[in-house]
Each structure stands twice: as C-alpha cells, then as structure tokens.
Amino acid sequence: MTEMTETASGWLSPDELEAARARMPILYVDAVPVRVDDTGTVTHVGLLLRIGSDGTVSRALVSGRVLHHERVRDALLRHLEKDLGPVALPRVPASPQPFTIAEYFPTPGVTPYHDPRQHAVSLAYVVPVAGDCSPRQDALDFAWFTPQEASSPSVLQEMSGGQDVLLKQALAHVGRLP
After folding, report:
1. Terminal CA-to-CA distance of the chain, rounded, Å?
2. How much is the pTM?
C-alpha cells in the first residue's frame, strides 16, 4: 500500500505536504456545527474532543484541508461527514459564505490563530446540522453545548490554536454571544 493516492484525487504524500506547507499557505475550512430551532435561532453548538499530535486533549471545531480541484462546499461536507458521521445531515447552502477568514501562523501572536505546522488560511462557516452526530476519525467525543455553555471560560479554555476566538466570532455572527 502506498502513502499517496492517485494524483488526480488531490492528495499529497506526507513529504509533498510538508514541502508545500514550508512554501505557501494551505487552504482550510472550519465549520461550527449548530442546532437551530424553528425560527432559525441557534440553540446548540457542537464541539469535538480530540487528542492533538502532542498528546493534549482539547475541544475543537470541524476543520480540514481543501483538496486540489475540490469545491469549498464539497470540502465542508467531506469534513463534516468525516468528523460527525454519515447521518449528521449538515445543511450547507448551494453557495456558502464564510462568516470570517482565519489566518493561522506557525509563529504565535501574529493573529489569534496558531498552527505550529504551517501558515494556513481557513474559511469559517456556521453549519446547521439536523441529524445524529457521532465522533469519527481522530475524535474522541462530540457534545452539544448551549451558546452560553460554549462561550463559558471553562469550555473556551479547553480549545487551542485560537479556535476559542473563532467560536466566539461564530456565536457573535449568529447573534448568540452572551
């Protein structure tokens, strides 16, 4: 078995990805899964629990790279299914618009967002989810929080890399930041 799939698929080998990360920003998507009521008001925010490469456990948003020749909408759907399961039923519009653009730097302090591996530009979306969610891939758990719980210091301090800032921006964008 090879470490790289077909070139046409958009995947890079680990060495190619490392070389690309050293030379240019990588495009990502971040998704904040939410539950909404009948009026469209956000009632709950979903957060993953992950183990990082350094062994730390933290709360996280759905996040991942956009592949070569992949539409942003398709990347959102792929990462939501990868992390939340095939019956999460995300409602991504035909032409999604990000609520912000987060620029992650390997150097801490340039922006609120930090990724020691790379310079990355992430388009961030709030995505209503209607189905059942169960953690998959490298996620240990998935939990729903009210906007008040999600924005509490105890939950925000469990997040890393500036995703706490991104979560607060998402809550402010939907009018639910307490």
Report:
1. 50
2. 0.89
Tens of pLDDT, residue by residue over 22-44, are: 888 999 999 999 999 999 999 99
DSSP characters for 147-164? Answer: HHHHTSHHHHTTB-TTHH
In a domain, 113, yes or no: yes
Range of the domain at 149: 24-173
Q: Any idea of the CA torsion for 145, 72, 111, 117, to the nearest 10 degrees?
A: 100
Report the C-alpha gap between 2 and 173 in whole angstroms: 43
Strand, helix or coil at 63? strand
The domain total for the chain is: 1
Backbone angles phi, psi at 119, to 5 degrees: -95, 120
CA 60/CA 51 separation, integer angstroms? 10
Q: What is the CATH number of the domain that holds 42?
A: 3.90.79.10
In a domain, 18, yes or no: no
